[in-house]
Predict the 3D structure of the following.
Amino acid sequence: RIDAHTADINDLSARIEAAMEPFRFARELLVSIPGFSTTIAEIFIAETGADMSAFATAGQLASWAGTSPGSNESAGRVKSTKTRPGNRYLKGALGIAA
């Protein structure tokens, strides 16, 4: 049973590597960031598509990922600062990288 699971994992790893071939340069750049592993870089590319032109600023990417805190203030009183909902897969991967 373990040999069958190992063979399946190796097959999936080969398929992921083939799918990531067009993004090899972007993956290498992401892996150079402290805390980013190859798996985290692959998740980041899978969720964002490696096309950062959709996000004008880094803050917009952080907001889309759900890692920036909300801001609900009225009359000088802060009511809620919990993080906003976002892409749960990217948010989890960034949490692991941190």
Strands lie at 72-74, 77-80.
